[in-house]
What we know:
Elements (H helix, E strand, L loop, with lengths): L2 E7 L5 H15 L6 E7 L11 H9 L13 H7 L2 E4 L2 H10 L3 H5 L1 E3 L20 H24 L3
Parallel strand pairs: 1-2, 1-3, 3-4
Amino acid sequence: MKTRILFVCLGNICRSPSAEAAFKGLVKKKGISHKFDIDSSGTYGYHEGEPADRRMQSHAVRRGYNLTSISRPFKPEKDWDEFDFIIGMDDSNMKNLAEMARNKEDIKKLFKMTDFSNNYNHTEVPDPYYGGDQGFELVLDLLEDASEGLFEFLNSNAK
């Protein structure tokens, strides 16, 4: 059975598609892509149907990631059932997701990306949308680090 992971940010055009790509890249490198279903969404549908932010795509490509996902809103009636892990990028999105939870079982699936960080002390993956190049690079640094930590967590808690 595949482990199903959904990464969530606000608009699903910067952080969550990058988290999706970083984690897909990690499991591909480890030769176990077939063991995962990985997707991303946003807590708001502002950018529904749009590709990832062009600036985020540009920074991601330099690291070997292709952000192919198309923005979609989080669907509580479907996503809580479809995914094993729902991973938010910041406190605001964690709060929004918790408010969309239907029960305690949904809440048990909810994690924050930075909880898996090994080498950074950030408590959130900051939204780079209104910033410059450094913000996009920081997001990728944090996501790569937390992806490694998430992978270790999944391995140590394998079903």
